[in-house]
Structures are given as structure tokens and as C-alpha cells.
Amino acid sequence: MTDTILQAVISVIAVVITAYVVPWLKRKLTAEQQAELAEWVSIAVAAAEQLYTGTGRGGEKKAYVLSFLEAKGYTIDVDSMTDAIDALIEAAVYALKAGDPI
């Protein structure tokens, strides 16, 4: 039952990323910039997962990822990019746990 719920959540995340995040990113970033951003998000998520172990530390992990991205030159516009960055972070976390790169 838990696997079914997890698969449903993953499916919803995939639909959101495909329907909203990818088109938004394509409008805002070049293909090279998109790939670079996804790579940095993956690296930051992996680092955050190693630095902040244990449950209930999602806020600290997200703050680390956002800080990491800002240090790499990505200015996060809270109003317009939050959903896109959140989706990229969630996709990177899922890929990390599944053992797949995004």
C-alpha cells in the first residue's frame, strides 16, 4: 500500500515537472543553463542529504540548497521561481533516493 502511494506521489511530481516546470524553465533559461542548474541542484541536494542527517530536517536541507545555488550565481526570485526550484529539488531528492541522476 505504501508503495502504491509513493508511486502515485512520484507520478504527480513527474506530471507537475513536465507540465509546468520544464516549460517555465525553457522560457527563462537556455538549454545549457537548464542542464547546469539541474546539475548544481543535484549536487546541492546530495550534499545536504549528507550534511543534515535524520528526519525532520527538510527546512535545513532546503535552506542549504538555496544558499548553495545563490553561491553559484543563481539568484532565486522567491515570487516567480519558488515552485520551479522546489520541483527541481524534489526531483533531485527522488533521483538520489532511487539511485538515478536527474
Count of distinct strands: 0
Rg over CA atoms, rounded to whole Å, is 14 Å
Shape: globular
Amino- and carboxy-terminal Cα gap: 26 Å
- % residues in beta strands: under 5%
Order of helices and strands: HHHH
Structural class: mainly alpha
Query: How many domains, in number, for the residues?
Result: 1
Give me the number of helical elements: 4
Low-pLDDT parts are none
Mean pLDDT: 79
Most strands sheet: none
Helix proportion range: over 70%
Q: Would you write up a description of this structure?
A:
By secondary structure, the protein is an all-alpha fold. It has one domain. The protein has 4 helices and no strands. Helix 1 packs across helix 4, helix 2 packs across helix 3 and helix 2 crosses helix 4. The two termini are 26 Å apart.
